[in-house]
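A.,

Following up on our hallway conversation. Structure tokens first:
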């Protein structure tokens, strides 16, 4: 659990409730013993600055070439290949383009019910997925290797590519553990 900024504490509890033992990562040395890494929501520009000042940016990019990573909201922005509105550097681990704060200011926070794709329900259990969006990015482009596991208003909001998973919403803020379980199964 990357724990420099954002809602890593809620994610840590969701991981514990899903049967994992989180390590709260603040230093590069801690990466060596992990099976995977979760990048929380928060403020991606601040997280990026902290990644740079802690010398973690290159290590995370390299970690992502070997091990699964799961990014939510700001974490999704960090994992994207392209970031707009405004543009900023990113780890480029997922072949997606994201527009920050894409839903605009008026509707910047909401809770909705999603119909997940059959392959998500097959692996985690059936039923609608409650999704909390907070100043969320919109995934404007998803490459051919990217699998869409849930959409909202016609845009992908939960996607996987190879060993990685990205959600533009906050699964750690609901009691539904299926998204975390899905990631733990990817480990
Ligand atoms: N709007 C934030 C950003 O651009 C992300 C918001 C969130 O993580 N809830 O970084």
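Then the amino acids I'd put at each of the 187 positions:
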């Amino acid at each position: 659990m990357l724990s420099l900024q954002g809602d890593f504490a809620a994610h840590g509890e969701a991981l514990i409730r899903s049967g994992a033992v989180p390590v709260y990562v603040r230093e590069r040395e801690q990466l060596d013993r992990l099976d995977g890494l979760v990048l929380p929501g928060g403020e991606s520009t601040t997280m990026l600055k902290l990644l740079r000042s802690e010398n973690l940016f290159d290590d995370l990019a390299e970690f992502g070439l070997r091990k699964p990573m799961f990014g939510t909201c700001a974490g999704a922005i960090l994992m994207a290949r392209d970031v707009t509105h405004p543009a900023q550097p990113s780890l480029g681990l997922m072949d997606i383009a994201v527009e920050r704060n894409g839903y605009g200011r008026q509707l910047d926070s909401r809770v909705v019910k999603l119909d997940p794709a059959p392959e998500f329900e097959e692996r985690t259990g059936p039923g609608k997925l409650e999704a909390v969006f907070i100043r969320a990015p919109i995934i404007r482009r998803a490459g051919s290797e990217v699998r869409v596991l849930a959409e909202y208003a016609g845009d992908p909001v939960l996607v996987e590519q190879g060993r990685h998973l990205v959600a533009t919403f906050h699964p750690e803020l609901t009691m539904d553990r299926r998204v975390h379980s899905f990631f733990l199964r990817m480990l």
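The first strand starts at residue 37 and ends at 39. Curious whether your intuition agrees with the design.

B.
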